Amino acid sequence: MVSVLNQLLSLLPSPGYALPIFLVAALAVLVFFTSASHTVQLPGPPGLPLFGNLLQMRTGHAQSLAKWAQQYGGMFRLALGEREAVIISTFEQVEKTLIQQGAAFQSRPEFKLWHGAFSRALDPDAPTTLGTSKFTEKITKYRKIVTAQTTVNKLSSFDSFVARRFLRLTNLLSESSKSGMAHDLGFHFWTTVIGVTADTLYGQHFDEETISLVADVTVDAFRMRSLATPLHDYVPLIHAAERIALLVAAPLGFILRPLGLSSWLDSIHETEKRAMYFRETEVAYCKQFVKELHERMDAGDTTPCQMGDIFRTAEGSMLTPNEELRLSQTMTGSGMSAGTSMAWLAPFLAAHPEMQEKAFAAIEEVYGGAVPDPLDTGRVDYITALGTEAGRYFASVRLGFPRETYEDVVVDGMSIPRGVLVVYNSFQINRDPQRYDRVEEFIPERWLDGHYGRTDVKQPKVGLPHLNHGAGRRFCMGVPTVNKMFYGSFVLLLHFFKLERAPLEEAARNSTFPKFRSTIDGEMSLEADPIHDQVSLCDAQAIPLPAGIKLTPRNPEALAQWLEEQRLEWD
After folding, report:
1. Cα gap 402→109, rounded to integer Å
2. Could you give the CA distance from residue 266 to residue 246 in angstroms, rounded to a whole number?
3. Cα dihedral: 128, 134, 135, 137 (round 10)
4. How far apart (Å, rounded) are the C-alpha atoms in residues 1 and 258?
5. Which family does this protein fall into (predicted)?
6. What is the per-residue pLDDT for 126?
């Protein structure tokens, strides 16, 4: 390459042209050496030098990948800056990769913003969460420890914490109904599920201010785990340029502002400031929660709780402070995706009164008019089916958490080397026509009366119902908790209230949770469209737009009586 440049320079008629030509040539060399390698011989869309397919994805990740899958098949290749990526788009390819060859697909990639500015911003050796860490033998050990605390049988020992959160949720809904106004229910759902995970994790009932903070940080921070953004995660030249620009921004601000460059630099700085804030806040409250738990245990407290029960085991007693922090960060706020699914489903049901009435009739049939037990998970099949279909249809985790090949692997005769980024498009896989019929329709009945994904045939319950919780070796450990929270919340909501869509008045809109949702123009449509009614087309978590829901108690006196009785019993 150097000899070629020398030959080109020797042909220049004047030395005055040498420098600009040399700079262009040098840039071409940098582009060549910072573009993605081409070791995976799968078909895929052509990309640009340096950027690959990055810029083509910025109009919407799930849609872009779905469009390419129609042309290139269920597994294809992308170039994302310097990263080479394999995209999985069908259940068949999930089975061949994440499940049948799970060992080869069990690692995670690292990204500059999430693992650098966020996860290790305070300490280069700070532990990342289990879900975002590259695979090591210790990851297997930690996952076994956590899994032991999240089984269905184990969760029942924490029912006192769950019951109080269901009481709080019903009380919040009751208070919202008394105003006569429409409210967005994001606060109700996210703080409920994240409150349950925090309470059961540390063995105490956290106050409103604490849980609101944890929920706000959890939801907003997750938005940084987006694929293909920011560009500096994938293009080293942009990363280097941003570092240099930030260094000169202060002394050269008087030059950059007239050129219109200061806003670009400010956005870079603001993104990293937010990442630092989230990291500092998360580390601070997790450390404080663990410290308080140890103090209570040292004082003789034996309250069942996940972290406490871990510490009481032989393996748990040998954890280092950093390992304790890793488990704490992994599990605190882990109910976020369940809250997101609830924030999608409630407005959808509010626009479909016939579905609400079918759910209410199913509850009545099982409980004979009595208030349903929210801890009796799965007893009303229709409520369970609503939760399963919401996971499929809305796919709150739009693109499954990225994988990285841990070893060389062969799929369908195609070699994929170690270290390749692997992404599965949960949204599209949840609409795989080989797995589901009428894929664009929300149909709870596809999970009832012997059906398992399709309404046109009955089939055994084999395999995963959808990809919202992942698949294979890094499957989400919190699925039993998600199912429990989803069932209890909606069996109470639909028993006690009728839901109706209505516009948000200014006061209700300003109180939308998390705060960033209140700054978004517009509200969710009555169709609750999974693509067009999300806050951002490029966020990893499909956060819905604000949605006004007016709540009307079916029987105000019975609701008030139940709240008072349960307050005395559960408190």
Report:
1. 7
2. 9
3. -50
4. 39
5. Belongs to the cytochrome P450 family.
6. 60
- Which of 111, 197, 332 is CA-nearest to residue 324? 332
Any residues with CB less than 8 A from the CB of 542 and at least 6 apart, and which?
340, 344, 394, 395, 396, 397, 398, 427, 530, 534
Q: What would the two tokens of residue 513 be?
A: 């949770």
Give CA separation, 131 vs 110, 143, 476, 478, 532, in Å: 11, 9, 8, 11, 28
**What is the DSSP annotation of 311-339?**
HTSHHHHT--HHHHHHHHHHHTTTTHHHH
Amino acid at 44: G
Map tokens 């609830």 to a residue. 342
Spatial distance between the Cα atoms of 456 and 406, rounded to a whole number of angstroms: 39
Tell me the C-alpha distance between 47 and 49, whole Å. 7
State residue 226's pLDDT score.
78
CA 486 to chain centre: 16
Higher-confidence residue of 246 and 363: namely: 363
Q: Reduced to 3 states, what is the DSSP secondary structure of residue 411?
A: strand
3-state secondary structure of 550: strand
Question: Looking at per-residue confidence, does 270 or 234 come out higher?
Answer: 234
Q: 551: which 2 tokens?
A: 């709540």
DSSP code, position 134? P
Burial class (CB in 10 A: 0-12, 13-18, 19+), 187: buried
Average pLDDT over residues 158-164: 94
278 vs 383, higher pLDDT:
383
Q: What is the DSSP letter of 74?
A: S
d(CA 442, CA 460): 21
Handedness of CA 526, 529, 530, 532 (dihedral sign): negative
Q: State how far the Cα of 565 lies from the Cα of 567, in Å rounded to an integer.
A: 5
Cross-strand pairs, 415:
410
Residue 295 burial (CB count, 10 A): 10
User: The tokens of 141 are what?
Assistant: 């050990």
Radius of gyration of the chain, Cα coordinates, nearest whole angstrom = 26
* 286 labelled binding-site residue: no
Angle at 273 between CA 272 and CA 276, to 5 degrees: 85
